[in-house]
Design goal:
With 520 residues, the protein is α+β, with helices and mostly antiparallel strands. The protein has helices at residues 13-20, 22-77, 86-102, 130-138, 184-234, 249-305, 312-343, 355-373, 391-408, 438-441, 465-475, and strands spanning 108-112, 117-119, 143-149, 158-169, 173-182, 350-354, 377-380, 386-390, 414-420, 424-431, 479-485, 489-497. The chain has eleven helices and twelve strands. Helix 6 (249-305) runs antiparallel to helix 7 (312-343) and helix 8 (355-373) runs parallel beside helix 9. The longest helix has 57 residues, at 249-305. It is rod-shaped and about 170 Å long.
């Protein structure tokens, strides 16, 4: 069983929203672009703020350390070098400097001498990085580096800045001295700046998104109104018009839509009137031709009954007259049927019919024609394919498909298959003749279209058979489609619902013949 339903394509919710909603795309694109811009701007501002705050702290620490060192060196210069308490005086002066640093927690101090180590209470000597000790050994001057201040009295560690220098005593001695400045306050200020920056960026992003969304809605509202108006026009409400407000581009769109609707209404009215006149003309002509046609048919039958009494040329003319009258009557009947379809006057006379038996009857009827062309018709049908159908119309469809296959089958075998399932019945007619190109396949059901007008036709025909067959299938709510390929033949497929008025959801037989999928 061939089921030709296509399952709906599933995708991610975001992708579906992206493809279906223009406001969503505008807002998403705006948010993405804004996020990139705000992130770059925020990172730049944070970097500049961080550098500025830490740079100012470094400069202030260096200035304070320089001032303390200058004052300490001036005091050391006043010490008597011959004093026996030189070390005690140096220690006392350094301790005074260390106590002043404790006021306001300005800095911690560490002085290392061969005799004693002076260090601020609670400060661990491991706070001083080895890198700055090495730099201090290489040259004089001030050196600074960030560090993590370690305490030995239980206080939590905190970030800081180390400023190192050599403390020279009486030009003979020099000792390394380290000032440790806490930077917790500066880092807290930097954290506040960071939080404010990100909060401002977030608020700006949300506000920008809401603004863009509202603007998109303002722009899309008239566009959606135009879409609704176009849909109503397509549904036949040609009197609907859009409101024109102001003289903006959107109002110009509304005016253009209204103008298009007016012109479309005029054109459709003209075409409807013309179509009505054409339908009436075909119907009237067909009906009016029936009366003289009946008279001509009676006269032709009288002449044909005496054909044996005529000379050969006249007898041949009598035979041609009868055959062409048959074709003319078929044409009139088909034109009348087409006019009924166009006027919407065609109705179904439904009854439960076995499609398998109907097909077998029609095959038996056309088998002599098939034998004349050398084609052998085989029928593959099993079981009862019962459906509610109009027997006369379905017989006409089957007959048209069979005669078409005989005409274009080039004497090759013709295969007929009947299939069914719980919802539908189907028929395929397969020939192995000249086939069809892709362009011709789209025109097969057009009225009066012929695949090759120059080709000699054995069975005559008006060019309306397949068009009428397609209309008969549509009237049943079924489908008539085909597959064709050059030099591989064609296959027509008729599918009808078992119960009249039921929508087709599956197809019992495949449209493409088995083994020909690669040729599609």
């Amino acid at each position: 069983m061939a089921n030709e339903q296509t399952a709906p394509t599933s995708g991610f919710g975001f992708l579906r929203r992206w493809s279906r909603s223009l406001p969503f795309r505008v807002v998403a694109a705006t948010m993405a672009a804004s996020l990139v811009i705000l992130s770059a701007t925020g990172l730049y501002l944070l970097d500049q703020s961080s550098q500025g705050i830490l740079e100012r702290k470094t400069q202030a620490s260096l200035a304070q350390a320089t001032s303390v060192l200058t004052n300490l060196r001036s005091q050391l210069a006043a010490i008597d070098p011959r004093s026996t308490s030189l070390s005690e005086q140096v220690a006392r002066l350094v301790q005074d400097v260390e106590r002043r640093g404790k006021v306001g927690d300005q800095y911690h101090l560490l002085l290392e001498t061969p005799v004693v180590q002076i260090v601020s209470p609670g400060l661990s000597p491991t706070t001083i990085p080895d890198t700055i000790r090495s730099a201090l050994d290489l040259s004089d001057g001030l050196w600074s580096t960030p560090t993590l201040i370690n305490y030995t009295d239980g206080r939590p560690n905190e970030p800081g800045l180390v400023v190192a220098a050599q403390l020279r005593v009486l030009e003979q001695l020099q000792y390394p001295i380290f000032f440790v400045f806490p930077t917790t306050a500066e880092l807290q200020a930097l954290q506040v700046v960071q939080q404010a920056t990100w909060a401002a960026g977030l608020f700006l992003l949300i506000g920008l998104s809401v603004t863009v969304y509202l603007i998109a809605l303002m722009v899309l509202r008239p566009i959606r109104a135009a879409r609704v108006a176009a849909e109503r026009l397509a549904a036949g409400h040609l009197e609907d018009r859009m409101r024109v407000v102001g003289d903006t581009d959107i109002s110009s769109l509304a005016a253009s839509m209204n103008h298009m609707a007016s012109e479309l209404d005029k054109k459709i009215t003209q075409l409807q009137n013309l179509s009505t006149l054409q339908q009436r003309f075909v119907s009237d002509v067909s009906h009016e031709l029936r009366t003289p046609m009946t008279t001509i048919r009676m006269a032709a039958e009288v002449i044909d009954s005496h054909r044996d009494e005529f000379d050969a040329p006249i007898a041949r003319s009598s035979e041609l007259l009868s055959s062409q009258l048959d074709r003319f009557e078929d044409l009139l009947a088909e034109l009348l049927e087409i006019s009924r379809f166009d006027a919407g006057a065609a109705v179904l006379h439904l009854e439960e019919i076995d499609l398998s038996q109907l097909v077998q009857d029609e095959v038996d009827a056309v088998r002599p024609l098939a034998e004349e062309t050398g084609s052998e018709i085989t029928v593959n049908a099993s079981g009862l394919a019962i459906a509610e159908i109009d027997e006369r119309r379905v017989r006409r469809i089957v007959r048209n498909l069979l005669t078409n296959a005989i005409e274009h089958g080039e004497g090759e075998p013709i295969e007929v298959q009947v299939g069914y399932d719980s919802e539908a019945v189907a028929l395929t007619v397969r020939d192995h003749g000249v086939g069809l190109s892709a362009g011709d396949a789209r025109k097969v059901f057009d009225r009066f279209w012929r695949a090759d007008p120059a080709r000699a036709r054995r069975l005559g025909g008006t060019g309306l058979g397949l068009a009428i067959a397609s209309e008969d299938a549509r009237l049943h709510g079924g489908t008539l489609d085909l597959w064709g390929y050059p030099d591989k033949g064609t296959q027509f497929r008729l599918t009808l619902a078992r119960n009249a008025g039921t929508e087709l959801t599956q197809w019992p037989l495949a449209r493409i013949p088995e083994g020909e999928q690669d040729a599609e």
